[in-house]
Amino acid sequence: MKEYNLQNSFKVQLNDINFPEGGFVKFFSIFAKTLGYEIYVKGENLIEANIASPPTNIIFNPRKYIEYVKLVNSLPAKFTVLLAPESVIFDFDFSENTGLFVKRKLKGKIDNFIQHLYRIREEVSDEEIIATEEFVLDNTISTLNVFTGKQTSAIVTIFLLISIVVYYGILVLFNGGNVFDIDPEILLNFGGNFPTKTLNGEAWRLFSSIFVHSDLEHLLGNLVALLSIGTLLEPKIGNIRFFLAFITTGVIGASISTLNNHFYISVGASGATLGLYGIFLVLLIFKKTHLRRNVFFDVLSIVIFTLASGLFDPEVDNSGHFGGFISGIIFGLLFLIDFKTAKQKFNFAGSLIIALITLVVSTYVVKTTPDYRSMFLEILKETDELSNSSQTYFELLKEPSTFDDSTYLRYIDSDLSKWNEALNKLNSAYNLKLGKEQIRIVNYLKEYYSTWKDAYNIIRQFYSGEENNGSLSDSLVVVYYKLTEIIKRDKLVVLPDVWIPHNFIFIVRKNKFVDDDEKALEYYRLLSNDAPVEKLIESLENGKKIWENTQSYFSGFDTLNIAEEYKIQYRLLVEYLKLRIESYSKLLDYYKNNNKEAFNEYNKLVDAIVNTLGELRKANFR
Fold first, then answer.
1. Which residue in 50, 177, 291, 416 is a FRET match for 377, CA 20 to 30 A apart?
2. CA-wise closest residue to 573 among 507, 495, 502, 477
3. Which range among 51-65, 250-264, 307-321, 396-410 shows the weakest confidence by mean pLDDT?
4. Which residues have CB under 8 Å from 244's CB, separation 6+?
5. Residues 578, 366: Cα–Cα separation, whole Å
6. Which segments of 369-468 does DSSP mark as H helices, in order?
7. Which residues contact residue 203 at a Cβ distance below 8 angstroms, ignoring those fewer than 6 apart?
């Protein structure tokens, strides 16, 4: 191995390696390509080199990939080369290496590097060096801080972090000290992006919502993400550009959210932070920043995970996330204008275009986007008014006078037209970019209105004589029961204190009971005609089944909003059926088992039945 002079700060000066005249730069091209370095010509006599990412042809070859990793780990990752008049000086950058025995390890990497340098020089002929194309000075490949001439600190990142934390502290103060979950009303009052307000004179919410966070988990997640990307990106693009990037991508994200989420308060710096990640990815792709190459895949993985996880969380504003990230990619491409040449240290052309685009997009969104939430509420108001005014037929039933069928039909048709109009308005609501809750409300009201429409169509047949009224009564009872279930299920509609449909159900069931009760009393007619015991037993069993079936007709009536007089009749009817069933059970025991005690108990039940029938007559049951 050739001797070399290791100076302070890991500088190596080579004096004894010979090249054809002016051929070191060409040789270094061969050397770098052989060892896997990327080269950046920084000036006439200055070259910068960094370890490149593995070639694509070995990434998926485990053996070759392991060999590549071993080689990379044995060499310095970053260095610069200064061409002096009679020597070559390598300045190795080990600023990121710390720990015990680190100097010995780094000395070993330098030794290995120099060995490779001399080995490759011996293997490469002067003819090969002369034939190699020399580097062309490319000012577009330079460090991202060309506009300042020096690395900038992450002072804006720190300022933004402090601002977000302080603002959250204010929210907590007005939230009664609850640090974990901020009340939506407070989010709204302190600048949350709520389209109904944003689109109606409060466009500033597109900006303010960036600094508002809904809970502690939301806050911490965005703080960590902002800190991570801020310390990487801000020193590369400068304080002013970084602040501009954060605000503009945040505003664009909030604008896209306003286009799609009209029913929720959108808050948080997620869109802005993802926008910064988008800018950083663009700059990495176009080699405007020099970091280890797998940083690209690390950042890309974070972005993909963040965007994908939001798709499975209904509380995440995906529009804001994707809007911020995509705008970051576009703005990253525009930032490239600012880095066109190293001499233009203060070129802000791309930055001005970005600011202009943000202004145009946000203004366009605010001026042209319909307020879908207000439109939705207006539809609900109109359909509610139609619903309230579509009960004229039932109002007519309350009148003491009896009208002819044509009058009832006229009112029924008027009510039906209103139900149809309400359903048409609800169908138009699906065009308003509804959220899941709003879709649930529309579906519920459609089911409610459609069931009312079905009820009116059945009622109409009563007066038009289209079908037998007996079957229509049963159909109408089924529809009214369905209405009751719909109302009780989601409670978006309130049951009236006394509901005519429930009264109708009770009357229909009561009339059916009267018919069935006559059939169930067949036993007493047979008894008066001295029928044989077998016939009596058969009639008792049939009668008992009839009354048990009648009991099922009135199941749940205690929960219905029937008139007070019907409630009294219902309670007496339940008691009557219970006594009748029990009395027939005693008679069956008497006839089948000759149980005289059962007959005595039956006689006692008869007295109770007579008393109940008397109470029913007083309650105008028959």
1. 416
2. 507
3. 51-65
4. 351, 354, 355
5. 69
6. 372-388, 392-397, 405-428, 436-464
7. 362, 363, 366
Give tens-digit pLDDT for 267-319.
Answer: 999 999 999 999 998 888 876 665 545 566 777 788 888 888 777 777 788 89
Dihedral sign (CA 133, 137, 140, 142): positive
pLDDT at position 8 over 70: no
Q: How far is CA 283 from CA 233, 278, 499, in A?
A: 9, 9, 69
**What predicted TM-score, i.e. pTM, was given to this entire model?**
0.66
Residue 430 to residues 260, 265, 280, 427, Cα–Cα distance (Å): 13, 20, 39, 6
- Whole-angstrom distance, CA of residue 147 vs CA of residue 534: 112
Q: Kindly give, in sequence order, each residue whose CB lies less than 8 Å from that of residue 262, ignoring residues fewer than 6 positions away.
A: 195, 196, 371, 372, 373, 376, 432, 433, 435
Average pLDDT over residues 143-168: 73
472: tokens are: 């229509």
- In the sheet that holds 78-83, the strands lie side by side as 5-6, 11-14, 88-92, 78-83, 46-51, 37-43
Cα(589)–Cα(537) distance, integer angstroms:
10
CA distance 586 to 590: 6
Most confident of 26-30, 474-478, 537-541: 537-541
Higher pLDDT, 87 or 247: 247
Q: Which residues contact 388 (CB under 8 A, 6 or more apart)?
A: none
- The span from the CA of 598 to the CA of 589, in Å, is 6
Distance CA 405, CA 407 (A): 5
What is the bridge-based pairing of β-strands 88-92 and 46-51? unpaired
At residue 598, the pLDDT reads 92
Name residue 248's amino acid: T
Residue 149: which region, alpha, beta or left (left: phi > 0; alpha: psi -120 to 50)?
Answer: left
Determine the Cα–Cα distance for residues 218 and 316; give it in Å rounded to an integer. Answer: 10
Rounded Cα–Cα distance for residues 419 and 454 (Å): 10
Distance of CA 92 to the CA centre of its chain: 50
Residue 318: left if φ>0, alpha if ψ -120 to 50, beta else—which one? Answer: alpha
* Tokens representing residue 100 in the block: 């015990």
Q: List the structure tokens of 580.
A: 């009748």
C-alpha 234/C-alpha 243 separation (Å) is: 8
149 pLDDT tier (thresholds 50, 70, 90): very low
3-class SS at 81? Answer: strand
SS3 235: helix
DSSP run (H or E) holding 91: strand 88-92
For residue 59, the model assigns a pLDDT of 52
Pairing of strands 5-6, 88-92: unpaired
The residue type found at 77 is A
> Residue 178: which residues within 8 A CB-CB, separation 6 or more?
172
Compute φ and ψ for 124, nearest 5 degrees: -100, 130
Q: Which two tokens stand for residue 582?
A: 């029990």
Q: Specify which of 99-103, 149-153, 481-485 reaches the highest per-range mean pLDDT.
A: 481-485
The Cα 193–Cα 375 span in angstroms is: 18
Beta-carbon contacts of 437 under 8 Å, excluding residues fewer than 6 positions away, are 263
Is 144 a residue whose pLDDT tops 80?
Answer: no
Beta bridge partners of 39: 49
Q: How many whole angstroms separate alpha carbon 203 and alpha carbon 199?
A: 6
Say if strands 46-51 and 78-83 run parallel, antiparallel, or are unpaired. Answer: antiparallel
